[in-house]
UniProtKB/TrEMBL annotation:
InterPro entries: Aminotrans_3, Aminotrans_3_PPA_site, PyrdxlP-dep_Trfase, PyrdxlP-dep_Trfase_major, PyrdxlP-dep_Trfase_small
Pfam families: Aminotran_3
Superkingdom, natural source: Eukaryota
Keywords of the record: Pyridoxal phosphate
Gene Ontology molecular function: pyridoxal phosphate binding; transaminase activity
Protein name per its UniProtKB record: Aminotransferase
GO terms for cellular component: cytosol
Native source organism of the sequence: Periconia digitata
Family, per entry: Belongs to the class-III pyridoxal-phosphate-dependent aminotransferase family.
Region (Disordered): 1-23
Organism lineage: Eukaryota, Fungi, Dikarya, Ascomycota, Pezizomycotina
Biased composition range(s): Polar residues: 9-23
Amino acid sequence: MAPGRLESPITTLPDSSQTTTAPRESHFINLALTKTLPIPISGKGIELYLSDGRTIIDGCGGAAVSIIGHGNEEVALQTHKQGLQLAYAHPGAYTTTPAGELCQFLLDGNPHGFEKVFLCSSGSEATETTMKLAKQCAFEKGEPERMHYVSRWQAYHGSTMGAMSMSTNLARKEGFEGLGYPHVSHVSPPYAYQYQKSDETEDQYATRLIQELDDEFKRVGTQKVLMFTAETVGGATAGCITPPTGYFRGVRKLCDKYGILLHLDEVMCGVGRTGTFYAFEQEGIVPDIVTIGKGFGGGYAQIAAVLIHKKVVDVFRKNSKPFNHGHTYESHATACRAALAVQKIVRRDHLIERSAAMGKVLDAELRSQLAPCKSVGDIRGRGTFMAVEFVKCKDTKESFPPELRYGIQVQRFIHDLGVDVYPGAGTVDGIRGDHILIAPPYTVTEEQVRHICSVVRQAVLEMEAVYM
Ligand code: PLP
């Protein structure tokens, strides 16, 4: 055993977690009081073992979080060791070794020009941080009139007030209409399946979307817009929508023209999910700010990061003002150690390349296995980040009535058959966009991919027998 390593791996759970064997009423205040949730007692690889004896194949890594699978002993040991050594030191007064190493890991040999990292605990915090960073940057530049953010329809950037204002996942905003930051407006996302016109080329579609963004910047006032925020590959709300070629190059050009910051939210699609560490690497552009989360800690730590380009950092440097923002648990030592351990495994085991390769298998399997399904309108995505959109009629692309909650029903059916996928609906303009998202850990095998797809097929065919 290497010096400093623990004598015995922590693979056994404390007794208390083993004693509950039946689903219990949820303790979460945001779920209906009557709702019961299954209890995963442990997990290994892409399998979750529930208290009722069932095994679930994790076909979506939770919410595209678990990138190296469950129960990784290396990560558990590293985290345990860090906890024994130092779990916490106040981030206003100290920088811990794991936080430093993690930032170094992100910035080392970095070809994109990011110079600083803000480590926080969730994707929502990362969005809030980015919004405030953009505002202070404009202020330091002597542009205090920049107060407005533009984001896109069918997007999710988090559940806190600022992040919710940037988000357009209508279901998540229900009951909170009118709350949040007031100076936010939205433009169309690149959602070719539902919105690209039949007589429009990909190039023309990209041009139309960029023109809409230009029009929105002008409507608000190009001197008043702070930042444009977009998911590089749209995740949960619209279901793995990929941009048409040239879209982000056009967006970048427009932001540069007007001095508007470009923030790409890669909380869901980043850290190798689409086959490259950042999804924007496939777009030929670099944002001013990129946010990552989910796969960054791989489910082993609650951690997210805001990476800030030199262009923005220089504004702060020039004006010698620190960023006026912080959280008690930012750059938490054990969270950073866990994330670093996850990322080192990803690098050592070439898991991003594996995400790209398994993504090809997943794409091909979904297409062949779902070919007979009448309700499967579109299969799209990149890497191990794939969505299946359901429609009532393939010719018209008409969606199922929203009250049917077709996508959610399919997801529940799949769960009953022992596989987890992630449900979603991109409600806007009366188009529901029912879909499921499939995003397994990058460690998934070809056989497991085939199994996930065959279960999806079985569930969809059975749903169709009832509803079509
Ligand atoms: N941004 C995107 C693109 C997301 O998908 C999410 C969560 O689903 C968030 C931000 C918010 O992250 P969190 O749930 O960690 O606050």
